[in-house]
Amino acid sequence: ELISSLRSKLQTLWEERELILSEGRECARRGEELEAMVRDVCKPNEFERYMMFIGDLEKVVSLLLCLSSRLARVQNAMRRIDGNTDAEEKQSLNERHKLLSQQREDAKDLKENLDRRERVVSGILAKYLTEQQLQDYQHFVQVKTSLLIEQKDLEEQIKFFEEQLENLEKSIP
Predict the structure, then answer these.
(1) Which long-range contacts (CB under 8 A, 24 or more apart) does 100-107 make?
(2) Which structural domain range is residue 128 located in?
(3) What is the per-residue pLDDT across 40-73, written as a single tens digit (0 to 9) for each?
């Protein structure tokens, strides 16, 4: 029954992932249309700024999500530390926690820098685009970020349930 329930949950998550991937393709298509429009109306250096921002948006958000996920796994492992855990493992977990915490803080700084750059790019685009086009750009940035977050969350859930299913199947003779 439990195996069946896990398989059903995984099927639902895989379907959600396909939906998110489809939305991601649609977002990418809108991004290409927006890119063409920005290329047509902006000066080359302004267009370059726009392209750098869009490229860095995905990288920085993905980095922040990845580091947060890894940090959460280390924190979970640290909560499982007990009297039987050897000192070397405790020290390793503490060092990884410290390193990941610092890396996440650095990534937050990158995100703040990216947010400032987004305001600069918005200011540039405001000179050339209509109010509706500017809203479309802002919506694109929000959707792109949301899809990255949803996709990462789904991947984490799928990984978790696949591990649970695998462990359960191995435990049954």
Answers:
(1) 100/67, 100/70, 100/71, 100/74, 101/71, 103/67, 104/64, 104/67, 104/68, 104/71, 107/60, 107/63, 107/64, 107/67
(2) 1-171
(3) 999 999 999 999 999 999 999 999 999 998 999 8
